User: Fold this.
Amino acid sequence: MKCPFCGFSETKVIDSRAGEDGTQIRRRRICEKCHKRFSTVESASLSVIKRSGIKENFSRTKIRNGILKATQGRNFESEELDAVVSEVVDSIRSKGLAEVDSYDIGLAILEPLRRLDAVAYLRFASVYQGYDTLDDFSKEIRKLKRSRKKSSKTA
Ligand SMILES: [Zn+2]
Assistant:
């Protein structure tokens, strides 16, 4: 990537973030010669392999919709939800893979969602992990309670 100001070919990335739809990455760069800053937008195609074997384009919107569904009626600010969406997108994007399993996307959503809200986590986990008995739910709730006790002790 050449500097648009002086044409020098050594530039350093100082910041990068995923674009709104998750298919582009914006990078903030600094020229190592003239020290001027500029932005570049890079496209990176990422496919999601669904359980059915069908491939589709990675979509930030779909991740957001999944999180919205799980947090419905829980009164979160859209900024709070966007932070979770960004965390998920960044963690998947940062692996630099061309393909990702839908199962791994679910896994990437679970942990930030658990930190955000226990109810939303359980809702999402119940769909994602296919809980079909009350027993599965009560096991998961016990696990949550244990981890909550642990974190309140350390806090
Ligand atoms: Zn320059």
